[in-house]
Write a structure and sequence with these properties.
The protein is α/β, with parallel strands linked by helices. It has 2 domains: 119 residues, Rossmann fold (3-Layer(aba) Sandwich); 94 residues, Winged helix-like DNA-binding domain superfamily/Winged helix DNA-binding domain (Arc Repressor Mutant, subunit A, Orthogonal Bundle), CATH 1.10.10. It contains 8 helices and 11 strands. A 5-stranded parallel sheet has the order 2-1-3-4-5, with helices on both faces. A 4-stranded antiparallel sheet has the order 6-7-8-9, with helices on one face. Strands 10-11 form a two-stranded antiparallel ribbon. The termini are far apart.
Length: 230
């Protein structure tokens, strides 16, 4: 058994899957709570304060995407791993664009789920000595308040855009491939499909370039790098 202080919330309307996942995670050393529908998930998220949510999409009242959106809107969303039978690329993009950190399709193995949980927790639980404020040129990102400013102007980002920008700023000056960004930001490779990276780099550029010269540079054949100046 792995010793862990993390609190996990498992949300699934199928009792056998909910119990299987919860029991497996409990055996791994996590403190686990469960919910069978979207409204219960929202209530549990507020009362239990989980460090991560394993969330089904097809719930009987509020689907998992909307649960994720509501948690993001309340400013209290922990990392979320979608666990669902919905397998299309469009569904995966919707889940990750809404703020999800990973997307696992059914049928699944408990070993894979446990590995994904460990990876997401390791990535999202910031070390105590990690910088809480990042600055590159006139661009500043505050981890605690989830705010971004460029040249003193606030830049409004979605959760996924914020995570992508944070990753680029943490590796400022370095060239990151699309595959590296998929792994670092989304933790999912889409079977090699890098369209999601291109899309979100485009969104970020539009927002950042409003108040200054371009900062996200394409290095053809290699990937992207964030640098101050033109």
């Amino acid at each position: 058994m792995v010793t862990s202080s993390a609190r996990l919330l498992v949300v699934d309307d199928e009792e056998n899957i909910r119990d299987l996942v919860a029991t497996g995670l409990h055996y791994q050393g996590y403190e686990v709570a469960t919910a069978a529908d979207g409204r219960s998930a929202l209530a549990q998220a507020e009362a239990f304060r989980p460090d991560l949510i394993v969330l089904d999409v097809s719930l009987p009242d509020i689907d998992g995407f909307r649960v994720c959106d509501r948690l993001q809107g309340l400013g209290q969303a922990p990392p979320i791993i979608f666990l669902t039978a919905r397998r299309t690329l469009e569904d995966k993009l919707t889940g990750l664009s809404s703020g999800g950190d990973d997307y696992i399709t059914k049928p699944f193995s408990l070993q894979e789920l446990h590995a994904r949980v460990r990876v997401v927790l390791r990535r999202t639980r910031t070390a105590p000595d990690a910088p809480r404020r990042l600055r590159v040129g006139d661009l500043e990102l505050d981890v605690d308040t989830c705010t971004v400013r460029r040249a003193c102007d606030q830049v409004t980002l979605t959760p996924t855009e914020f995570k992508l920008l944070r990753c680029l700023m943490e590796h400022a000056g370095q060239v990151l491939s699309k595959e590296q960004l998929l792994d670092l930001v989304w933790n999912y490779d889409f079977d090699g499909n890098a369209q999601v990276v291109e899309t979100y780099v485009y969104y970020l550029r539009k927002k950042l370039d409003r108040t200054g010269p371009p900062m996200i540079h394409t290095v053809r054949g290699f990937g992207y790098a964030l640098r101050a100046g033109s």
